[in-house]
């Protein structure tokens, strides 16, 4: 089973979209194994977005991510990384197709509500930035054999 890091970024919390967005992952059949409400500091944001260092939007992106609380989650399931990226939609809210989270709720490029890891390798790296191993729960989901 694959795991992926999902962040509901500060705009999602400010816009009261935690429930609406999280419902999509639950309804898809993914399993929640980690969840916390966290205000990222500059050091965490820098590590999280290290790949974007030097790009014109980098500073603004760090300011945005550290501007308020985020919901950090780890979701598990078959092909979880790609499945979550598909649920999220394209980076630019204006281009993300309807039916996706960004397509339905976002218009901005930067303030696009949600982060999802883009590969299994980055997922394990990002999960270790946001969660301690003991914060991830191994639990038996009753309909697991029906869903995956
Ligand atoms: P994604 O979040 O879809 O993985 P990304 O990794 O390319 O997108 O970029 C990380 C975040 O940076 C993205 O969610 C929003 C912001 N961003 C990306 N490109 C941008 C741009 N051209 N202008 C402003 N913000 C941008
Ligand atoms: Mg990315």
Automatic annotation (TrEMBL):
Gene3D superfamilies given in the database record: Nucleoside diphosphate kinase-like domain
Domain Nucleoside diphosphate kinase-like intervals: 1-138
Pfam name, any one: NDK
GO biological processes: CTP biosynthetic process; GTP biosynthetic process; UTP biosynthetic process
Cofactor field: Mg(2+)
Primary location: cytoplasm
Protein family membership: Belongs to the NDK family.
Gene: ndk
Class in the EC hierarchy, top level: transferase
Protein name per Swiss-Prot or TrEMBL: Nucleoside diphosphate kinase
InterPro entries assigned: NDK-like_dom, NDK-like_dom_sf, Nucleoside_diP_kinase
Reactions catalysed according to its record: a 2'-deoxyribonucleoside 5'-diphosphate + ATP = a 2'-deoxyribonucleoside 5'-triphosphate + ADP; a ribonucleoside 5'-diphosphate + ATP = a ribonucleoside 5'-triphosphate + ADP
UniProt binding sites for ATP: 9, 57, 85, 91, 102, 112
């Amino acid at each position: 089973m694959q795991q992926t890091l999902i962040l509901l970024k500060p705009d999602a919390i400010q816009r009261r979209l935690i429930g609406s967005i999280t419902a999509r992952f639950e309804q898809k059949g993914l399993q929640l194994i980690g969840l916390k409400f966290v205000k990222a500091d500059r050091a965490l944001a820098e590590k999280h977005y290290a790949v974007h260092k030097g790009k014109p939007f980098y500073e603004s992106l760090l300011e945005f991510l550290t501007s308020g609380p985020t919901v950090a989650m780890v979701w598990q399931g078959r092909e979880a990384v790609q499945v979550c990226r598909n649920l999220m939609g394209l980076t630019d809210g204006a281009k993300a197709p309807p039916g996706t989270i960004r397509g339905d709720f976002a218009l901005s490029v930067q303030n696009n509500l949600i982060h999802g890891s883009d590969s299994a390798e980055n997922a394990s790296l990002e999960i270790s930035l946001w969660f301690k191993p003991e914060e991830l729960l191994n639990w038996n989901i009753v309909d697991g054999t029906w869903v995956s």
